[in-house]
Amino acid sequence: MQPLSRQFKQRATIAIKDANLQAALGKAKEGFVGKRAAAIAELPEFEQLREEAKAIKDHTLANLDFYLERYEAQVKKYGGHVHWAKTAEDAQRIVLDICRKANAKTVTKGKSMVSEECGINEVLEAAGMEVVETDLGEYIIQLAHEPPSHIIAPAVHKTKAQVSDLFHTHHAKFGLTRRLTEVADLVNEARQVLRKQFFRADVGITGGNFLVAETGSSIIVTNEGNGDLTQTLARVHIVTSGIERVVPTLDDATTFLRLLARSATGQETETYTTISTGPRRSGDLDGPEEYHVVLVDNGRSRMLGGQFRDMLRCIRCGACMNHCPVYGAIGGHAYGWVYPGPMGSVLTPLFTGLDVAYDLPNACTLNGRCQSVCPVKIPLPDLLRELRHRQYEEKITPAYQRLALSAWAFLAKRPRLYHAVMRIPVGVLGWFGRGRGSFASLPLASAWTRSREMPAPQGKTFQQAWRERMENRDERRT
Amino acid sequence: MSDGREEVLRSVRVSLNRERPTPEERDRLEARIATLRRHTRPAFEGDLVGRVVDKLSSRAATTTLVGTMSEVGTAVADFLGRNGFSKKIAVAPALADLTWPQGFDVHTGKARADECVSVTACFAAVGESGSLVLLSGAESPTTLNFVPENHIVVVRTEQIVAHFEDVWLLLRALPQGMPRAVNVISGPSRTADVEQTIQLGAHGPRRLHVILVGRDCLA
């Protein structure tokens, strides 16, 4: 999809005023944060697992070429096919080719963020295929023609009433015309509609949470079982996955599985963890006849070369966005692309351009909660700061901000001058504000004073106040 | 397609600032795969059977304990009776030898589209999380695990191991290597995609019933 991140400020402003969105976000936040905390309290080994997971990923990334080739060889050994996509367009072409060769009319899909990133659905639909998202959240947003607003709960921004409206509109063609108000009924109706699609599908596409070099396996985790029906009932199974998802062994993958469910949904384990290796074997009564893996680079190999390698440890759990006050206030759509929240604010500028996603690294309070909950210890605030730095270096930062920063830097490097200059505004503001103690409005600071008062300085700079205090103390002593 | 492969690998190596790994490096990395490393595993105490029962029930699965395989038929009949289901079941070929009570309509093989109840064996169960591990194969069609409304799994108590790593050890010992699918199942299907409300039976089975078979179940 085309990134809309340039419109971040407008979209964020609209999001804050959207009553439905605010209601949905309010319900979601407490659930995610509380459940994660409870799940982690049950596992004293959690911190140790984080350290080990980080070390496993760092080791794998430092030898990524080896592990990718090792993984590929194992997939082939079991009769599967591996395709390499340098770009999103390559991934589109590869998936389209496989679907065309399979004479696909209906394609079912388990949730795959890489597929969203590469815009696979649009390409298949343009080629006349019916593409059906089967994860309930993905299905809801597909009906609404919207991108996901959260990487593990794609329809978290929708209220029950909105889902009810969508089903009422789109399920009439199946003869389902009753308006539903209970969650149980909504889920049942989706089950009924999608069940038929699973059996009709020619091709099933899923993501891959982990790829195992030891065995040539792809691993998905789901709660609904949709990924399993997708990949078991279709003739052809395609896995779309980023090249950074490879891990050396099943044991290594297990460390991540222990972290993933707890960090994502606060579950000890998701309902279904499925390890897939190659197509149907002789004698098997079911399962796909073809098994394809599309390894997507799309900028990842470039990230490997510098400070952003840390970001490639990401296991897409969503804990960073669940704990982010900015995400919590505006939801995922304002970010304008596939990945929202802190991880998205790092990935979107890297994948789509520092200028395209200028606002994202700046829409951060640097409170550090994302880093503190990240199961693989990605230093997200540092990476966001580094992106700001690069925007400045590449002169993407607006001229007035660059000028202000340069002026401040000039002063900050000259302490005497700095103190002399700072006395002026502090003195003036202190004098004007001496009555009220704060300002309801101030020139150049309207963004601040629109929603709260600006406290007035007390007339002296900190340095002056400190010096006087020290002098007074010395006098008292003598 | 092969040029995509070379392009990606070249770009990876440029970023890693190195050529393809030397034979020595490959040996070292192969050795890391071949050597079992002791990762941190969640520690727990207590008996495995009790733990599996507790863990499964915490995720809305139900369990029955029986002493021998010959009692499985009755346990299945109880489950069907309790829920008011007809005595029509799909059974995994692995359990074809079991005898079923009078009046049962049994078919072995993969799941039909409108299957109500399936009964399958399993490869292992995991004490750590109470998860069941099922392998695809001629004896154990994967559709039985996901298509029916209700899934009954027969677990022999000696199949319960402590951690997932113990299951992988058993997998590595299989002569045919990895099966097409290893399904780790930890409860009935669920979703929370509408307003974070947990609803069972999203796409897979609405009920997961586990029959634990073993002498230690008699106590």
How is this structure best described in words?
The complex is a heterodimer of chains A (478) and B (219). Chain A is α/β, with parallel strands linked by helices and 478 residues long. Chain A has 23 helices and twelve strands. In chain A, the strands form three sheets. Chain A has a six-stranded parallel β-sheet with strand order 1-10-7-4-2-3, sandwiched between helices. The termini of chain A are far apart. In chain A, 50% of the residues are buried. The mean pLDDT of chain A is 94. With 219 residues, chain B is of the alpha/beta class. Chain B folds into two domains: 3-34, no CATH class; 48-218, 3-Layer(aba) Sandwich (Rossmann fold), CATH 3.40.50. The longest helix of chain B has 15 residues, at 2-16. Chain B is elongated, with a radius of gyration of 21 Å. Chains A and B meet through helix 2, helix 3, helix 4, strand 1 and helix 8 of A and helix 1, helix 2, helix 5, helix 6 and strand 9 of B. Strand 9 of chain A pairs antiparallel with strand 9 (181-185) of chain B, so a sheet runs across the interface.
Briefly say what this structure is.
With about 475 residues, chain A is α/β, with parallel strands linked by helices. Chain A is built from 23 helices and twelve strands.
**Which regions of chain A are unreliable across 5 or more consecutive residues at pLDDT < 50?**
none
- What's the CATH topology label of the domain at 43-301 in chain A? Rossmann fold
Shape of chain B: elongated
Q: Label the structural class of chain B.
A: alpha/beta
Distance between the termini of chain A: 74 Å
Taking strands numbered 1, 2, ... along the chain, how are they ordered across the largest sheet of chain A? 1-10-7-4-2-3
- The share of residues in extended strands of chain A comes to 5-15%
Order of helices and strands of chain B: HHHEHEEEEEHEEHEEEE
Q: Rounded to an integer, what's the Rg of chain A over CA atoms?
A: 26 Å
